[in-house]
Write a structure and sequence with these properties.
- The structure is a single chain.
- Helix 1 packs parallel to helix 6 (about 165-185) and helix 5 packs antiparallel against helix 7.
- The chain is α/β, with parallel strands linked by helices and about 325 residues long.
- The chain has a seven-stranded mixed β-sheet with strand order 5-2-1-6-7-9-10. Strands 12, 13, 14, 15, 16 and 17 form a six-stranded antiparallel β-sheet that branches.
- About 40% of the residues are buried.
- The mean pLDDT is about 95.
- About 25% of the residues lie in helices and about 25% in strands.
- Helix 4 links the parallel strand 6 and strand 7 (about 105-110).
- The chain is elongated.
Length: about 325
C-alpha cells in the first residue's frame, strides 16, 4: 500500500532528515519534498543546501524551497500528494495545503503534547528539568501543534542530559513512529485523540536574551538546567568583565561555598568552577569571544587565570 500513496515531505533540519530517510527506506512513495531556502553558512557565508535539500540531491528527490510557502503553495499541490508528512520545517503550512491530501497532513512533533507546543520543545523540556518527553504523531491544523494525536512514544531525560543528547534519542524515536505507526494510520486503524488544553505549555524558539546565564540570580539547579538546555545550540554564555564566554560542557555540584554568586572560584579538577546559590557550576569546555573553543585546563593556562575571583553577571 505504501507505494500507492503519494507522499510529500515538508522539513528542513537534520532532525527532519531522519524522518524523510525513514519514509524512503520503509518504501513510502516520496514524490517530493519542501524545505526552507538554502542559507549562507559559516564565516565565509557560503550558500549551502539545507539538510533536507542535500538529502534530496543525494537521492534524486524533487525539492521545493519557497521563500514564503503560503505564496507558493501551488508548487506543492502540483505534486498531487495523497499524504503530507512534516517535521521541523520552520514555516506555517497554509490551509490549502493542509486540506489537499486524502490522508491529511501529519506532523512528527518532539514532545508529549499538549505539553510544549511550539518551535523549541526539546530545549524547554530540558530547561524545565522534565524527567521524560517523547515524540507524537499528530494531525496538522491551523492552530500551532493543536491537532489530534494518533500516537506518542515516551523517552526519559537524564539529569545531566543536554538538548543535543536528547535530540539524538528523539531522532531514533521519530524513525520508530514512522515505522510502527504510519502504516496503521493510513489503514484507518489509529483513532485520533483530541488534545486537552489542560496541561498545555508553549515552547517558543529560544530568544537571544535567553542565551545568557545569570549566575548571580539563578541558583545551582536553574543555572545548570539553563546551560544544558542550550547545548549544543544556540549555546549558553555568561558575561564577565565585559567578555562573553560560551559553554559547551558543564556539570553541577551542591558543594557549599561562601563566595558571592557568580564568582570564579578556581580551575581545579579540570573545570572552571563558578559559585552560585546552592552550589557550584563546573565548566569543562568553553570559548571566549574571539578565541577558539578549548577545555578549561587550557583556558586556565591563558586568559582564564586572570578571571579567578572575578564575577560573572
Amino acid at each position: 500500500m505504501n507505494k500507492d500513496i503519494r507522499v510529500v515531505f515538508i522539513g528542513t533540519t537534520d532532525f527532519s532528515v531522519v524522518v524523510l530517510n525513514t519514509l524512503v527506506t520503509e518504501g513510502w512513495n516520496v514524490v517530493g519534498a519542501v524545505s526552507q531556502p538554502d542559507r549562507p553558512v559559516g564565516r565565509k557565508q557560503i550558500i549551502q543546501p539545507t539538510p533536507v535539500h542535500q538529502y534530496c540531491i543525494d537521492h534524486g528527490i524533487t525539492c521545493i524551497e519557497p521563500l514564503k510557502l503560503r505564496k507558493e503553495s501551488q508548487s506543492v499541490l502540483d505534486l498531487q500528494p495523497d499524504l503530507i508528512v512534516t517535521c521541523a520545517y520552520g514555516q506555517i503550512v497554509p490551509d490549502d495545503i493542509l486540506a489537499a491530501p486524502e490522508y491529511g497532513c501529519l506532523n512528527i512533533h518532539p514532545s508529549l503534547l499538549p505539553r510544549y507546543r511550539g518551535g523549541a520543545p526539546m530545549h524547554r523540556a530540558v530547561w524545565a528539568a522534565d524527567k521524560e518527553t517523547g515524540v507524537c504523531l499528530m494531525r496538522m491544523v491551523k492552530a500551532m501543534d493543536a491537532g489530534d494525536v494518533y500516537a506518542c512514544v515516551h523517552v526519559t531525560i537524564g539529569p545531566d542530559e543536554t538538548t543535543s543528547e536528547l535530540e539524538e534519542k528523539l531522532k531514533e524515536t521519530s524513525a520508530e513512529i514512522i515505522r510502527d505507526y504510519l502504516p496503521s494510520y493510513v489503514e484507518g486503524k489509529l483513532p485520533g485523540v483530541p488534545q486537552s488544553e489542560e496541561g498545555m505549555v508553549l515552547a517558543p524558539n529560544i530568544s537571544p536574551e535567553e542565551e545568557q546565564v545569570h549566575f548571580q540570580s539563578e541558583d545551582v539547579h536553574a543555572a545548570y538546567n539553563h546551560i544544558r538546555a542550550l547545548i549544543s545550540w544556540p549555546l549558553p554564555y555568561g558575561m564577565i568583565n565585559g567578555h562573553r564566554i560560551r559553554f559547551y560542557r558543564a556539570r553541577m555540584s551542591e558543594t557549599p561555598t561562601d563566595a558571592l554568586a557568580g564568582t570564579v572560584l578556581d580551575f581545579s579538577g579540570g573545570s572552571m568552577n563558578i559559585a552560585v546559590t546552592g552550589g557550584v557550576i563546573h565548566i569543562y569546555e568553553l570559548q571566549m569571544e574571539g578565541k577558539k573553543q578549548m577545555d578549561a585546563r587550557s583556558f586556565a593556562n591563558g586568559a582564564g587565570r586572570a578571571l579567578v575571583a572575578q564575577r560573572f553577571e
